[in-house]
Amino acid sequence: MDEIICCLNNASDILVTSHTAPDGDAVGSLLAMGLALAAMGKRVVLYNESPIPAVYRFLPGSERIVHEVDPSRFDTAVVLDCSDLARVGRIRDAVEKMPIVVNIDHHITNAEFGTCQLVETDACATTEIVYRLITAMKVPIDQDIATCIYTGILTDTGSFRFSNTNQAAFDISHRMIASGVNPFHVAQHVYGTYSLGRIKLLNLALDSIEISPNRKISLMSVTQNMLRETGTQLEDADGLINYAKRIQDVRVAVMIQEMPPENGVSQNHRRHYHVSLRSDGTIDVAAIATRFGGGGHANAAGFSVVSTLPELKANLLQLMSGVETPVGS
Ligand code: AMP
Ligand code: MN
Ligand code: MN
Q1: Which of 13, 255, 300, 310 could be 276's S-S partner, Cβ–Cβ 3.0 to 4.6 Å?
Q2: What is the rounded CA–CA span in Å between residue 115 and residue 96?
Q3: Among the bound ligands, the one closest to the CA of 244
């Protein structure tokens, strides 16, 4: 922590970034860190390769996030909620060349990239770590920063329901509410402003659920056709996997999202897929995601792959065939 504070105190032009296809923690940590560094008088650019999902655009400062940047003019990069540097997207190589790269993250699979690391795998969200860092840097946590920190914790813990929900989630949320966060206002934006198309997409996604013969694995798919049919985007598939995970006896839920054709290969039915994995705690899905070049947490992980859908499903079922035998029996 002290080393990071020293780096940030000495920095003047800072690029703050987080992973592509950002979730609430990636947006929240990017904004909280960006607002705090700006309050310290630093020149900061907030960057994310992907558009900010509509449900997070209410977050203070989100209009400052840019999607194009000249990466040559920074002395420091702060990379948030990324288990490896490739997660930032196409600016990866440019970030790697920056004099100082600060890696702040909570993934068990963190590759320890960068010149200094603040990786706490017990943290429920990257914003939990950012909260401690901002406090240690003695930057006052105003309502705007507090809203970003709270939203990261709220979304990464699945509203305080997932296994990563720890005491800090409640302690910090309590403090953020004391700093002016309105939990109802945040919940309304994050969970209460879905488009009709998003609800219709839920219907199609639920209908796609398949269960393995042993009932331990559920598979859900979201295709480009479903998005077209409902007038939605991939960001509208966020959180759908939790329905597949809730099914009785299911240990691992798999969500296969077909990426747009420009990002991938479309010959011979091979497509670019993002695969999300969720576990009930008995299977380490970070280990499975790592086998496919991805990463994450023991109970929530993901990876990207180019494959055909039947081949991908067969590979996943094969890798998880051990799920057949209950752990400990
Ligand atoms: P997702 O299923 O995309 O919501 O991601 C679940 C968890 O796995 C998150 O903590 C992600 O940051 C992480 N994750 C997803 N995709 C990848 C990937 N390609 N490489 C490393 N980590 C990933
Ligand atoms: Mn994330
Ligand atoms: Mn996170």
Answers
A1: 255
A2: 9
A3: 1
**Residue the block writes with tokens 């039947």:** 310
| Same fold for the pair 2-191 and 196-322 | no
pLDDT, residue 67, reads 98
Q: Which atom of ligand 1 is nearest to the CA of 23?
A: 4
The architecture of the domain spanning 196-322 is Roll (3.10)
Q: What's the pLDDT score for residue 328?
A: 34
**Ligand 1 proximal residues by C-beta, below 6 Å:** 19, 83, 87, 107, 276, 294-297, 300-304
pLDDT at 4 (0 to 100): 96
Q: Which of 23, 79, 220, 285 to mutate to test the pocket of ligand 1 (most atoms within 8 A of CB)?
A: 23
The domain made up of 2-191 is a member of CATH 3.40.1280.10: no
For the chain, domain boundaries: 2-191, 196-322
Position 268 scores a pLDDT of 72
> What pLDDT, on the 0 to 100 scale, is given for residue 169?
98
- For the chain, give percent helix, strand, coil, nearest 5: 45, 20, 35
Query: Pairing state of beta strands 210-211 and 116-119?
Result: unpaired
Tokens encoding 260: 């747009």
Contacts of 205 (CB under 8 A, 6+ apart): 220, 221, 222, 226, 237, 240, 243
Closest alpha carbon to 50 in 295, 242, 255, 274:
274
Instruction: Give the model's pLDDT for residue 64.
Output: 98
- What is the number of other CB atoms lying within 10 angstroms of the CB of residue 178? 10
pLDDT along the chain (329 residues), means of 10: 95 97 98 98 98 97 97 96 97 97 97 97 98 98 98 98 97 98 98 96 98 94 97 96 97 96 67 96 95 95 95 89 49
Contact indicator for 51, 20 with CB cutoff of 8 Å = no
